[in-house]
TrEMBL record:
Organism of provenance: Sulfuracidifex metallicus DSM 6482 = JCM 9184
Alphabetized InterPro entries for the sequence: PolySynth_Transporter
Transmembrane segments: 7-29, 41-62, 83-101, 157-176, 234-257, 278-300, 306-337, 344-366, 372-391, 403-418, 424-442
Origin organism lineage: Archaea, Thermoproteota, Thermoprotei, Sulfolobales, Sulfolobaceae
Keyword terms: Membrane, Transmembrane, Transmembrane helix
Name assigned to this protein: Oligosaccharide flippase family protein
Superkingdom of the organism of origin: Archaea
Length: 469
């Protein structure tokens, strides 16, 4: 279980997503309008609803259990079949979407395939099958954003859904073949006692995910309700562009849970794992924020002039979703250490209620900027909670280096919002490099550990990190 190699494989999927989606959005912005984009946004919103409400055994629980057993060489076919069965149990719930507009009704098969595919991916990465998941991920994204351009050219939302459904069928088929080759031919096995046990164990995460939907998507729902599909399209576009850096970072952070679970099963100390992960991810996150903001603004002004009104919203959303990433990554070590997850439910309920309240208060007064401010508030509260809980549960240690990085995060955010002419980004970049050098954030011991995981073709990365830090 090599976290660097696996991160690179996952990053290939993210890179494909960014490149192909950028082409898709450029064409969509040129030949359609925010109203059509709003319909696409609703389908994407339903994907989030599916993950939040229909994922009754959270992927984190599946991946953690599979990774533990994989480390101990105790994986068996029956276990995989049991986990694979629960999407079929929730299939009837999708019929609730029949109450929505016609094009949403036709998305029901796609949303089921989307859920089933996500469960397969959770099983695969738990068994270190990152290569296989990258293959299907890239294949699906080419269909999702590339071939669906045909539907955009014809302004046909029904064709759009049909193409996405085809992509879902092919992706599920490929993942099924990979899993069957790994453990043998598999069929869903409905062991209700097994499923209820893991549902009960993951219930705090499940309820937390549902509540998080309100905190992460409540601003979009409120925007659609109060301002209509035009402003939803404008806001969703800003959110998608702003989400690119966190999407890339997610490719790196996505390997943390299976890796932490794998090595925890082998006796490694989660505090040391979380510390080095936090410091390395902080370096990558700071550089990503500094580079991404001027790049995103330039892309919008150059290719998407109809969406320039959302640039300030874009900056706030980018900061809210990207800058706290190193803190959010500590959640993986809390889960891997099998600490209580119930406090996350309380946090999610608080965040969900808060984002709805602030959105309803702010959006009617200051438009879509109110939704962005709401996300900043929620992000700040969530990050503070995760940090405190990780410290309390002894899965993270707050030393001098970690304290310096935590202090730098709000300072970078304030600079980007209030003092950031584009030509000064270079100075901020130099300041971050100086910060890491002065406080020796990345140690020689860290370098040795990173070097041990690096593929031979990427050994130059150590020299680059040494130059920066």
């Amino acid at each position: 279980m090599n976290p660097i190699k696996n991160a690179l494989k996952t990053l290939s999927v993210t890179t494909t997503n960014v490149m192909v989606a950028l082409i898709f959005f450029i064409i969509t912005a040129k030949i359609t309008n925010p109203a059509f984009f709003g319909k696409v946004a609703i389908i994407q919103l339903l994907e989030v609803v599916t993950s939040a409400f229909f994922y009754i055994i959270p992927s984190q629980i599946i991946t953690r259990e599979i990774s533990y057993l994989y480390a101990r060489k105790e994986i068996n076919k029956k276990l995989v079949e049991k986990f694979l069965s629960f999407p079929f149990l929730v299939l009837p719930v999708f019929l609730l979407l029949l109450l929505l507009p016609n094009y949403v009704k036709l998305a029901i098969p796609y949303l089921f395939l989307y859920l089933l595919n996500n469960v397969m991916i959770a099983l695969m990465i738990g068994m270190d099958m990152f290569t296989e998941s990258a293959i299907t991920g890239n294949f699906f994204l080419i269909i999702r954003w590339g071939i669906s351009i045909i539907a955009v050219l014809s302004h046909n939302i029904y064709l759009f859904i049909g193409i996405w459904t085809l992509g879902g069928i092919l992706s599920v088929s490929m993942n099924y073949a990979f899993l069957s080759r790994k453990v043998g031919l598999i069929l869903p096995s409905f062991d209700f006692a097994f499923l209820f046990k893991h549902f009960k164990e993951g219930l705090p995460l499940y309820l937390s995910s549902a509540a998080t939907f309100l905190s992460s998507q409540g601003d979009r729902v409120t925007t659609a309700y109060l301002l209509g599909s035009y402003y939803l399209g404008l806001y969703q576009f800003s959110a998608l562009v702003a989400g690119v850096p966190s999407m890339v970072l997610g490719a790196l952070g996505g390997v943390l849970l299976p890796t932490a679970s794998f090595y925890k099963a082998l006796g490694s100390d989660e505090k040391k794992m979380s510390s080095i992960s936090f410091r390395v991810l902080s370096l990558i996150t700071f550089l990503a924020v500094i580079i991404s903001i001027p790049t995103a603004v330039l892309v919008v002004e150059k290719f998407f002039p109809a969406y320039i009104a959302g640039v300030k919203v874009l900056i706030l959303l980018l900061l809210a979703t990207t800058l706290p990433f190193p803190i959010g990554s500590l959640t993986n070590f809390i889960i891997a250490a099998k600490k209580s997850l119930r406090p996350f439910l309380i946090l999610s309920l608080l965040n969900g209620g808060l984002v709805l309240l602030t959105s309803f208060l702010l959006i009617p007064r200051i438009g879509i900027m109110g939704g962005a401010i709401s996300q900043v508030i929620v992000s700040t509260i969530s990050s503070s909670f995760v940090l405190v809980y990780a410290l309390r549960e002894n899965t993270f240690v707050l030393g001098r280096r970690e304290s310096v990085l935590l202090t730098a995060m709000p300072l970078i955010a304030l600079y980007e919002v209030f003092l950031d002419p584009p030509y000064l980004n270079f100075l901020l970049l130099l300041s971050v490099i100086l910060l890491f050098k002065t406080f020796r954030i990345i140690t020689a011991e860290d370098m040795k550990l990173i070097d041990s995981f690096l593929p031979s073709k990427l050994k130059f990365f150590i020299s680059l990190v040494k130059a920066i830090t």
